[in-house]
Amino acid sequence: MFVLRRRHALLLLPRFFAAVASCALAAALVPSVPGAQPRHFAVTDYGAAAGSAGLNTAAIQAAIDAAAAQGGGLVVIPAGVFRSGSIFLKAGVGLHLEAGAVLQGSENIEDYPLRMTRIEGHFQQWRMALVNAQGIDGLQIDGAGTLDGSGKVYWTAFWKRRKENPQCTNVEVQRPRLMFIDRCTHVRIAGITLQNSGFWNLHLYRCANVVVEGVGIFAPFAPIHAASSDGIDIDSSHDVTVRRCRIAVDDDCIALKGSKGPLADHDADSPPVENILVEQCEFGHGNGVLTCGSEATVVRNALVRNCTVTGYTVVVCLKLRPDTPQLYENLTFDGIRLSGGSGRLLQVLPWKQFFDLEGHAPPVSTVRNIVVRNVSGDFGSFGFLDGNPGDTIEDVTLENIQINFGQPKLEVGKVDRLIFRNVQVNGQPMAAPVKS
User: How far apart are CA 58 and CA 225, in angstroms?
Assistant: First the structure.
């Protein structure tokens, strides 16, 4: 047993994440029987009809149930538009969407069962997703097809309610997620497109050894804002790789989530989010490339590398709730190309939406070991680096930065050991600012 010095541990993180990604992908690709091909169960063989005005929920679920009863297999959705409410995958049963296939979510919220489910850091009665999986080891969801959430009706309902009550919460108007993967291991999600989700697109809760690869995730921000359209929510999960994905949504592109509230650090339902690798992805519009929060407790060991940002978003978005004890540590952003975007490089700030101390004294949070390096291009603004009173922000390093900012000032609060190495802004060397 030995302990690495902090600096040496940080230097080893990229090598560590490469090993994690390789192991996770290998595990996800190993068939249960070497050389065996899964049996296919076409939903059309169980009564599903493309283009039908009715729902195919029962027919698709019948195909899933038949596959499970026969020892497992791959449920296949062929080309065509198949409308459905919630479906529930089972152990040994994967989902494959062929090119031209669209699994389109119902516009009727009653077609998504109301159950006790994980949402925004806690469990409550809420609507299930279009595609659901729980407690499955070796889950596969892939293909060249599309999951479409028919989100406009849900976004419209939310904004109508927000207009009636500006204080309404994000979950006051119930809306379905596109995918909810709950306590699954060795998960591979590849090739598909997720679009127009009524709420979050892909929600991973307490999952391990997950690979999300070659997936496109899209939601509009005009003419109507796609409220709460997070791309990927990694909630209380570990060893997750997101690779070669394209994400453009109207909320967080990738969010690392846990619990919230003054006792969140005692929440047994919310273990740390750790060992996250995001690489070779393209990010368009969104609230953040990688966001810690809005509900999160411990997040550590995350690496974002070799990615491109082309729209308005924040590269490093750390939300510090004044009602939640949080620890964000060992976060590295390496090799980021900013191409025509108008967003913000750093946004480390208090986040006070709907916070509630519940009679407790304000907790404090810690942000440490943040590295942003090898970043170039053109962007909107440098951003902000500050916390709530009593929070600790320390060991933040920016190196090999060459960016043209429209707003080049970095607003800095109390930060211990803010280090700039070879930072050039608008063609001029820049030293680390101090609190004014």
Answer: 32
Instruction: Output the six-digit token pair for 73.
Output: 């297999």
Q: In 3D, which of 205, 253, 212 has the Cα closest to residue 230? A: 253
191 touches 143 (CB < 8 A): yes
> Which residue in 110, 3, 4 sits closest to 57, CA to CA?
110
CA-nearest of 62, 16, 17, 73 to 40 is 73
The pairing of beta strand 282-283 with beta strand 246-248: parallel
* Cβ atoms of residues 78 and 53 within 8 Å: no
Amino acid (1-letter code) at residue 120: E
Instruction: Please identify which residue in the block is written with the tokens 């900013």.
Output: 338
Q: Identify whether the C-beta of residue 364 lies closer than 8 Å to the C-beta of residue 325.
A: yes
Domain assignments of the chain as residue spans, ordered by start? 6-39+115-149+160-429
Instruction: Establish whether the linkage from the previous residue to 294 is cis, with ω within 30° of 0.
Output: yes
At residue 66, the 3 state secondary structure works out as helix
Element (H, E) at 85: none
pLDDT reading at 377 higher than 60: yes
Task: Kindly report the pTM of this predicted structure.
Answer: 0.93
Alpha-carbon span 133 to 200, nearest angstrom? 15
What does the alpha-carbon distance between residue 181 and residue 117 come to, in Å, rounded to a whole number? 11
**What's 270's DSSP letter?**
-
pLDDT tier at 30 (50, 70, 90 boundaries)?
very low
**Which parts of 207-280 are beta strand (E)?**
208-213, 216-218, 232-235, 238-243, 246-248, 252-257, 273-279
Q: What count of other Cβ atoms lies within 10 Å of the Cβ of residue 222?
A: 8
Give the C-alpha separation, 244 to 280, whole Å. Answer: 5
* Range 155-176 burial, b when 16+ CB lie within 10 A, else e: bebbeeebeeeeeeebbebbbb
CATH superfamily for domain 6-39+115-149+160-429? Single-stranded right-handed beta-helix, Pectin lyase-like (2.160.20.10)
* CA dist., res. 134 & res. 147, Å (int): 19
User: What are the structure tokens assigned to 326, written together?
Assistant: 């949080």
Per the CB < 8 A criterion, the answer to whether 10 and 332 are in contact is yes
Per residue in 52-92, pLDDT (tens digit) is 889 999 999 999 999 999 999 999 999 999 999 999 999 99
The sign of the dihedral angle between the CA atoms of 119, 125, 130, 135 is: positive
Where does residue 37 rank: exposed (0-12), middle (13-18), buried (19+ CB within 10 A)?
exposed
